[in-house]
Write a structure and sequence with these properties.
The structure is a homodimer. By secondary structure, chain A is mainly alpha-helical. Chain A folds into two domains: 1-186, Farnesyl Diphosphate Synthase; 202-321, Orthogonal Bundle (Farnesyl Diphosphate Synthase), CATH 1.10.600. Chain A is built from 16 helices and two strands. Chain A has a two-stranded antiparallel sheet. In chain A, strand 1 and strand 2 form a beta hairpin.
């Protein structure tokens, strides 16, 4: 476990050392602000661990790791505008604290900063890294678009939903691992394995997020319990409920959307979901993806110890719900 | 002149051949729409001409040229949101035709597509190209932020303004030439020269844009005459007027801002500007930058003919006002 603390400290120092010009203040102040809001730094950690797995020091993977983290933060700044989210990690979002224009533009410049960070890598790896990064960035945009599209669609299937979260959140985790492996000069098979590990882990993790929103202990999750339910948000839970409901239960689902008493809304949702065994079904699906991730990890053909990556895997897996 | 037509046709075909996936439609339809709105294609043309100057075929500079054009279009899509512009080249802007969220996200994905295009270049040049592209993209964002900041500032000097247009519009023209020269394996001195040529040309061109808005023949310019005046926009003209006005004239300038009759507003502006010799002063400054550009062109140390780049220079210079 100690390496997690060590890598985290390393990343926090590196992120703190990313300095922006002082002017134009409206462009750069939001970036210094947003980058220090914290977060799990799960993605850059993935790059460091993947590099380590293939025998590369964290000094040599840090630029790729930071590029992933900067890209992630760029996408959050823009997503927050689109989702009209007032808070992120308990603090005001950029568009809330400043305004939409500033959030658009400082997001854009952060996106370039991510590429600038990526370009610091050895030219030997730059072509491959750039290919991976571009492909992933495009997929993340596609995922965000699908997510917005889904809010206006009534017929989102489980497969649609999984594909959306794969694009919106999981491919970036896959790419984070992949980039460490590219710098580690891993074989094509191993690169595919570790990418697939990251993507499946990411999907499982996102499903777990949906679960935790309703079934997590809210003090551990750090969010309002049932926030997704109260916002009538489409999640894997609501999709599973809908696809398993009979006509009467479908009516109840629709009726719950209009319930104005928050406590009652959560209670009625939990009652119906219990009846439909939504939580159990969801856990089954989540575990399917954790198992796929585990399989990809087993398939990795290397002599080095897999201990660190297994540790990360278990930490992510064991969040409580 | 024939090479201009040839290069233009080449670029139009190449741009038409950039195909986007069919889904998510809300992400990609705006891009196909926006890219075919036209435009002068001045920037990609600059890359082709610079490559040609250093002995490289347009086939070998086209990816860099297209990357510049895609980036330019990305920045227009986002700028149009920020400026709340309903029209671009006489057609609806993306945020107007779809909505702000779609314009943010399809702009983002177009930005990645620009990098994807850039990454198609020979790996030999990729490091240098990427460095130039990133630096420029950051400056363009800074310029847009300064432009927005200036609208709320009362003390914008001529130097401030020139610096803003340099960043917002001119460095991209400089970079477009530079990228052709990089692929042409030009010397560092020649790269600096052609970059400086492009930047100064871009500044002069932008000053000319401000001039044409008020003094151009509106049927040639294709915009409403005096649109900047009617919108109380800060331009080099308004800045020159303000810095040369006495107290009474400053009062008249402020009073004109509140004039509600459009024809009277233009008339009063023209009368005051004539008195202050704003047009003449502006032409002097513009020519200063055209001369700087000309000097950089003369300083280019090459054996190949400078005819084509001179032709482009003259075409851009001779727009009427």
């Amino acid at each position: 476990m100690d390496f997690i603390k060590e890598y985290n400290l390393f990343l926090e120092i590196e992120i703190e050392n990313i300095k922006f010009p002082s002017t134009p203040a409206n462009l750069y102040d939001p970036l210094s602000y947003f980058l220090t809001l914290g977060g799990k730094r799960m993605r850059p950690m993935a790059t460091l661990i993947a590099g380590d797995l293939f025998g590369v020091s964290i000094e040599n993977t840090k630029y790729a790791a930071l590029a992933v983290e900067l890209f992630h933060n760029f996408s959050l700044i823009h997503d927050d505008i689109m989702d009209k989210a007032p808070l992120r990690r308990g603090k005001e979002t950029v568009h809330q604290k400043w305004n939409d224009n500033i959030a658009i533009l400082s997001g854009d410049v952060l996106f370039v900063k991510a590429y600038e960070m990526l370009a610091k890598n050895d030219i030997k790896y730059l072509g491959e890294l750039l290919k991976c990064f571009n492909r992933t960035a495009i997929e993340v945009c596609e995922g965000q678009q699908l997510d917005m599209d889904f809010e206006n669609r009534d017929n989102v299937s489980l497969d649609d939903y999984i594909n959306m979260i794969r694009l919106k959140t999981s491919v970036l985790l896959g790419a984070a691992f992949e980039m460490g492996a590219i710098i580690g000069e891993a074989s094509e098979e191993n690169i595919n394995c570790i990418y697939s590990f990251g993507v499946n882990l990411g999907i499982a993790f996102q499903i777990q997020d949906d679960l935790l929103d309703l079934y997590g202990e809210s003090d551990k999750v750090g969010k309002q319990k049932g926030g997704d339910v109260l916002a009538n948000k489409k999640t894997i839970l609501s999709i599973l409920a809908k696809s398993n409901a009979d006509n009467g239960q479908l009516n109840e689902l629709r009726s719950i959307q209009n319930e104005i008493d928050n406590d009652k809304k959560i209670k009625r949702t939990l009652d119906l979901f219990d009846l439909l065994e939504v939580k159990e079904k969801c856990i089954l699906i989540m575990n399917e993806y954790y198992n796929k991730a585990q399989k990809s990890l087993n398939d990795l053909n290397i002599n080095n110890s897999k201990d660190n990556i297994l540790t990360l895997f278990k930490i992510l897996q064991k969040r409580e719900y």
